[in-house]
Amino acid sequence: MLDVRRLRLLCDLSRLGTIAAVAQAHTYTPSAVSQQLSILEREVGVPLLERAGRRVVLTGAGRVLVRHAETVLAALERTTAAVAALAAGVSGPLRIGAFPTAVRTLLPATLVALGREHPGLELLVTELDPVAVPAALRERRLDVGLLHDYDAVPVEPDPALDTVPLLDETVFLAMPAGQGDGGLAAAKDASWIMATPGTLCHTATLQVCRAAGYTPRVRHHADDFATVLALVAADQGVSLVPQLAAAQPPAGVRLVPLPTRRRTRVAYRRGAARHPAVAAFVTAMHAAAGAVRS
């Protein structure tokens, strides 16, 4: 019988690329990870890893086992969900990861509704950039999380996760009110306020500007859209702002709609869709998103 914990380590090695990264994700030592993977190799009876310079990579058998392991882990999630559905009421911890704009606009109503309808739930919120959510779900630090992508920067689906659509938003070019009537092309020579490098918002802004024929000239970095809009109002530059963050812009900001869209989804581990806590969260989030749209 193959050990599920060791299968998770192998899947994480496939995803993260190094034993050191797997060890860090699980708060193990690298030698402990190597030892567990060696035991898994003995259980399977064929080599799963091979040396490639100073690193280890998966063999053909290792890649096959990872594909099947993802199916096994999803089946375990479905089993856990089925057992949880037999309990009286929805209860227990629900660890939620969400990006700052959603924490401010969507989550308050969601948390209130869940607390009212399912008082047995212990709701735990962590503010995270969407880039960090998949790893947190895989590593079981979260139970549900909000992801988003932009049509300018589509994100490849994660085979370990399932998602449901939540919100589709217009993206605006936020400009100082007195800067003129031009859109994205006219912002070529403007100073830009951009998110921290490495975030999805930063990457999306770069891609949108490059599609318009230029690289933005960055003056400020800010991740909170309220801060971004305050800087735009102070004539410190222009920025891209999604509809969720642009409902009440400060005086002195003009919003120019762009064809770019931002798409938000609720994500959870594959197989967990019918877990009562996950299903309750999805229902409450859709209600909150509907109220925002209306």
Which terms would index this structure?
Arc Repressor Mutant, subunit A; WH_DNA-bd_sf; transcription regulation; about 25% strand; transcription; six-stranded mixed β-sheet; two-stranded antiparallel ribbon; D-Maltodextrin-Binding Protein, domain 2; about 290 residues; alpha/beta
Question: Topology, pairings included?
Answer:
Blueprint: H1 4-16, H2 19-26, H3 30-44, E1 49-52, E2 55-58, H4 60-84, E3 92-98, H5 100-105, H6 107-117, E4 121-127, H7 133-138, E5 144-150, E6 161-176, E7 191-194, H8 200-211, E8 217-221, H9 225-233, E9 239-242, E10 253-269, H10 276-293
Parallel strand pairs: 3-4, 3-5, 7-8
Antiparallel strand pairs: 1-2, 5-10, 6-9, 6-10
Helix pairs in contact: 1-3, 1-4, 2-3, 6-10
What features would you describe in this structure?
By secondary structure, the protein is of the alpha/beta class. The chain folds into 2 domains: 4-83, Orthogonal Bundle (Arc Repressor Mutant, subunit A), CATH 1.10.10; 91-294, D-Maltodextrin-Binding Protein, domain 2 (3-Layer(aba) Sandwich). It has 10 helices and 10 strands. It has helices at residues 4-16, 19-26, 30-44, 60-84, 100-105, 107-117, 133-138, 200-211, 225-233, 276-293, and strands spanning 49-52, 55-58, 92-98, 121-127, 144-150, 161-176, 191-194, 217-221, 239-242, 253-269. Strands 4-3-5-10-6-9 form a 6-stranded mixed β-sheet, sandwiched between helices. It has a two-stranded antiparallel ribbon with strand order 1-2. A two-stranded parallel ribbon has the order 7-8. α1 (4-16) packs across α4 (60-84) and α6 crosses α10. The longest helix is centred in the N-terminal third of the chain and has 25 residues, at 60-84. The chain is globular and about 70 Å long. The termini are far apart. This is LysR family transcriptional regulator. Keywords: DNA-binding, Transcription, Transcription regulation. GO terms for molecular function: DNA binding; DNA-binding transcription factor activity.
